[in-house]
Amino acid sequence: MHHSIPRLASAVLRRFFIRQEAAAADVDFVVQLSTNFFDLYQLFRELYGSRIDWNVHFDRLLDTLFGAWSARPATLRRTDKERVDRGAWYADGSLIAMQLYVDRFAGTLENLRGELDYFSDLGVNALHVMPLLKTPDGDNDGGYAVSDYGAVQPELGTMADLTDLAAALHERDMVLILDYVLNHTSDSHEWARRARSGEPAYQDYYYMYPDRSVPDLFDEYLPEVFPETAPGNFTYVREIDRWAMTVFHDYQWDLNYANPNVFIEMAAILLELANRGVDILRFDAVPYLWKQLGTTGQNLPCAHTLVRLFNACARVAAPGIAFVAEAIVQPVEIARYFGEGRWEARECELAYNASLMVLLWDALATGRSALVSLGLSHLPRPPADTAWLNYVRCHDDIGLGYDETHLRMQGWDPAAHRDFMIRYYTGEFPGSTARGAKFMYNPSTGDARISGTAASLAGIEVALESGDESLLTLAIDRHILLHALILGLDGVPVIYAGDEIGRINDYTYADDPATAADNRWMHRPHISRADRARRARVGTVEQRIFSRLSDLIAARRGCPALAGNGRAEVASCDNPHILGLVRTGRRGSRALILANFDSHEQFVPATLLAAAGFSGGGLDVVRATPVVPGRYGLSLPPYGYVWMTLDRAGGR
Ligand code: OTU
Fold first, then answer.
1. 3-state SS, residue 618
2. Which protein residue has the closest C-alpha to ligand 1 atom 6?
3. 3-state SS assignment for residue 504
4. Which ligand 1 atom minimizes the distance to the CA of 329?
5. Does 531 qualify as catalytic in the annotation?
6. Which residue, among 594, 575, 573, has the nearest Cα to 583 in the 3D structure?
7. What pTM did the predictor assign?
8. DSSP characters over 363-407
C-alpha cells in the first residue's frame, strides 16, 4: 500500500505540470515543487485523505502555491536563493531582535520606518512588530483577533506601508518578524459573519455545535486559557442557535483545520504576508491548532502535521522564510515544534524558550541558581538548523510553569514555590522590591500568572520611588543580569521594547475601557521619541541600561565564542548562587558565562574555573579587561556577571 504513494504522487505532479504550463516553464518553481512534493502530498493526505474529495482540494493547494510564487517579487526571490544557499540563516547567531507595538512606539508604520537608526544604535537587526492586521475596535486582544488578514489596521497604515517597512529593513540587512494568528479569527471576520448569517460552508470553517452535548464533552478536558475573563471554551451564537468553540476570548473563534478549505485559505494568507516581505512568521498559539474530543486539545500529533504542511508550502512558494513556534508548554513539548526525526527543522525553525524565561525569574526571586542550572541541563537541544528564541519579557504574562520534580529536588513544594513567586513578584513578600500584578488569579486554587515590565519586576520602579540610589543600582544590575544571560546564550535573543531603557509599569491601561480588564497592558508601555532620547543623557536610567545592553550586544557580535550558533553547557558549581555556562562557538572557541543571583558578593569556586578550563582567569569580553581570580576564586559583585574568553587578543 505504502510504496504505491510515490507512484500516485508522481502522477499527480505530472498532471499538475501539464495543467499549469506556466509552472512547468518556471525552473525555480519546478525545482521547489518537485523537491518538496512528496512531503506535501503525504502530509495533506495524512490530514485530509479520508475525504472523498481530498484530491480536488490538493489540486487547489498546488494552484494556490503557484499563484503565490508567481506573485513573489523578484527581490524576495533573490533573497530566497541566497538564504537557501546559506542554509539556516535564522539560526547562525547573527539575529538579535526587538519586539514592539507599532502604535505605542511610533504611531504608524510610516513613522516606524523613520526610527530605524534607534535599532542600529542598540545593535538589533530584527524587528518583531506586534499584530497589525485589521481587527475590530474595542475587544481585539491586542491585535490577536484578526477581522481581515488582507489589510492593515487603518490607524497604523496600509499594506503598502508594511511592504515599505520590510524593504527599508532589508536595505539595512534587517529582518521583519510578524505574527501569524492562525488558531482563531475575530468573530467579525467575513467567514464568521457568513457563518452567523447561516451559510453552512462557513459554519464549517469553525467548530460549531447545535447544542451543548459536544461542547460539554470538550469542556471536560480542555483547559481554560483566560479563566477569569473568558471561562469555558464555547460561546453561544444567538443568530444561528449554535455554540462556537472559543478557547481564548469569546470573540476569538477557533478555526476548524479539519476542513481543507481553512488550511488552503490560511496557507494563501501566510504566503501573501511573505510576499509583503515578512521574513519570519510567529505561529501564535501553535499548540492549540488541532482539537479532538477526549484530549486537552494541545500538542496533538495533527497540530504538528499542520505546521509541517505549512512549512512545506513555504519551501515551495517562499523558501527564504522561517517560522517561530509560540508554544508556552512543557520544555519537551515545545522542542517537538522544531520537528522530530525526518521532520527536524521542518516545522518551526525557531521556538520561544519559555522554559528559560521562567527559570530566570525564579533565580532572581530565590537568589539561587539550582533550578535554572537543572532546567538548562535538561532543556532539549534544538536539532541542527533550529534555535531557541531567548527572551526575558514579552507582551504576555509570565506563567509560572516549573518542572515539579526539579522543584522537589531542591526540597521545594511546588504549590508553596508558586505561592512564593506570586507574592515575590507582586511585592507582597517581605523584602521584595518587585512590583508586578496577578494575572488570571484564581482564589480557589491559588493559581496566578504575573504581569509587569522587566524593570518593575526587577525592582526599578520601587527604587525610583524610594529615591535610594544604591537600591536603584542593584535593581538595574538585576535587570541587566537577565539580559546578559539571554544575550550570552546560543539562539536568537529578543529584547522587549522598553526593556532596553528600563520602562516601568504603565498603569493608565486601567482608565481605558478597551484595556482595563486585561492587566497585561501594564507591561505594554507607550515609548515616545522623548523617552528614547533620554538614553543620551548620562546618568538617566535609560542611559544606564541602554549603554550596557548595547555594549553586551557589540561584545556578543565581536566574540567568536558567542557570535555563532554554538552550544552552552551548564558548569556544575558548589556555590548555590552562581550559574556557570560554558559556551562553545566558532572554530572551537570557548567562553565562560558566570552570573551571581545573590544580593551579596559571591565567589566562583576555583573548582568550577578549573573544570571549565579557566583556572587562570581570562579576558572579560564586555569590559575588555583581564579577569584574575583571587585566593577564594573569582569574585562577582551582587547580581554581577562576566563573559570571559581565553582569547588574550580581546573579544572585540
Ligand atoms: C498568545 O498567547 C498571544 O501571545 C497572546 O497575546 C494572545 O492573547 C493569545 O495567544 C491569543 O491569540 O495563552 O497567555 O501555548 O499560551 O498562545 C498567553 C500558547 C496565551 C499560549 C499562547 C497565548
1. strand
2. 396
3. coil
4. 15
5. no
6. 594
7. 0.97
8. HHHHS--HHHHHHHHHSPPPPTT-EEEEES--SS-B-----HHHH
Q: Which residue lies with its CA nearest to atom 22 of ligand 1? A: 285
The pair phi, psi for residue 306, each rounded to 5°, is -60, -45
- Ligand 1, atom nearest to 399 Cα: 14
CA distance to 27, 406, 413, 522, 581, per residue, from 409 (Å) = 58, 5, 9, 35, 21
Q: What are phi and psi of 633, to 5 degrees?
A: 105, -160
Q: In whole angstroms, what is the distance from residue 152 CA to residue 159 CA?
A: 6
pLDDT the model gives residue 3: 61
Among 284, 397, 500, 506, the active-site one is 284
Reported as a single tens digit per residue, the pLDDT across 245-287 is 999 999 999 999 999 999 999 999 999 999 999 999 999 999 9
- Catalytic site residue 117? no
Q: What are phi and psi of 369, to 5 degrees?
A: -100, -5
Nearest residue to 310 (alpha-carbon basis) of 327, 322, 326, 328: 322
C-alpha cell at 436: 508586578
CA-closest residue to ligand 1 atom 10: 285
Q: Whose CA is nearest to atom 21 of ligand 1?
A: 285
Q: What is the per-residue pLDDT across 425-464, written as a single tens digit (0 to 9) for each? A: 999 999 999 999 999 999 889 999 999 999 999 999 999 9
Average pLDDT, the chain: 96
Reported as a single tens digit per residue, the pLDDT across 312-369 is 999 999 999 999 999 999 999 999 999 999 999 999 999 999 999 999 999 999 999 9
First-residue to last-residue Cα distance in the chain: 60
Residues 470, 426, 516: CA angle, nearest 5 degrees: 120
Pair type for strands 175-180 and 280-283: parallel
Q: Would you call 158 exposed, middle or buried from its count of C-beta atoms within 10 A (0-12, 13-18, 19+)?
A: middle
139 CB near ligand 1 (under 6 Å) = no
Q: Which one from 161, 279, 326, 385 is the annotated catalytic residue? A: 326
Cell numbers found for residue 287: 499548540
Q: Of ligand 1's atoms, which has the minimum distance to the CA of residue 183?
A: 12
